Amino acid sequence: MTTAAGARPLRIAIVSYYLPSTSKQGIGYQVHELATELARRGHDVTVLSDCPPVEGAVYGHRHVRMTGSLRTFRFALALRRVDLSSFDVLHAWGDDYWLWRRRVPRHVRTLAGSCFEEARTIKGVKEKARMVLLGLSEVLASLVADHTVVISPETRRWYPWVRDVVPCGTDVRRFRSDAGQRSASPVVLFVGYWHGRKRGAELARQFQETVLPKHPDAELWMVSQDVPDDAGPGIHALGRLSDDELALAFQQAWAFCLPSDYEGFGIPYVEAMASGLPVVATPNPGALYVTDGGRTAVVTPLDGIGTALAELLADDARREALAEAALERVQKFTLERVVDRYEALYRGDA
């Protein structure tokens, strides 16, 4: 794929503290996908990150290396010392709040959720304070950039002056439905953390207490690196998977569940939907947006997750109907569509 006819390729700098080379943060994966697609279209793309380069990446990389404490805040200060004058576009996914003086012809900022919203549910006084500070940095960043977008409508609650929504994008060439790969026995797939806001431990508890008594052969596959060794019956810790391994896991599972207490968007929901997999989620802002208010998934309070999964695994017709609705909905979140939007923003056409 190339740039639009007659449009010259752009020199694009993308800022992201995170990359999938060493980080499990969803922002890093989205930046990697975005940079890859932009490079495929003929643009000259460089990602500035504290993480080392991703093996096999087709875009450039500049390592802004951090050590010690408060690295995310010091990363933002370090960016002030980087010469960006050779770029046409700066696209920041964080940490640009000190870049108030125009350094490139076009400065775009993506707010990947709201740290203020996350501060409401995160545990620990220090973590709450950190999230509030990051939320204030998001406010400043939204004023520094030429154009700011959010990844879901609910995020505008905290930044009502930001008008445009550009969702995250998923490569539907890789995440796609293949019924021939489906497991012979029931499998629920989870992608996230055992601890914290992804609530993997609570999912495992409800799976064992509610799902296994009705489906003794069911398994919960957890794409997670912090699952304890003694997680219990039916739990399979898959660790960290490659892109191809993750795509296959989505195709093999019967249902996907991420009972997170907060998601600004929730890329794994879209990856599951693109794979023809019915989704069970809690009513966080990202899940509600991605699933069209729950019309293309089962959205239930946390204490109903186990019951919802047990019922869904027993209902072939319901799973098939949800999968069909999800495949239609996911067309709004394809990587190609999202990159089209960003290209227009970079050129000032949107």
Automatic annotation (TrEMBL):
The keyword Transferase applies. Pfam families: Glyco_trans_1_4, Glyco_transf_4. Keywords: Glycosyltransferase, Transferase. Transmembrane segments: none annotated. InterPro entries: Glyco_trans_4-like_N. Residues 26-173 form the Glycosyltransferase subfamily 4-like N-terminal domain. GO terms for molecular function: glycosyltransferase activity. This is Glycosyltransferase involved in cell wall bisynthesis. It comes from Krasilnikoviella flava.
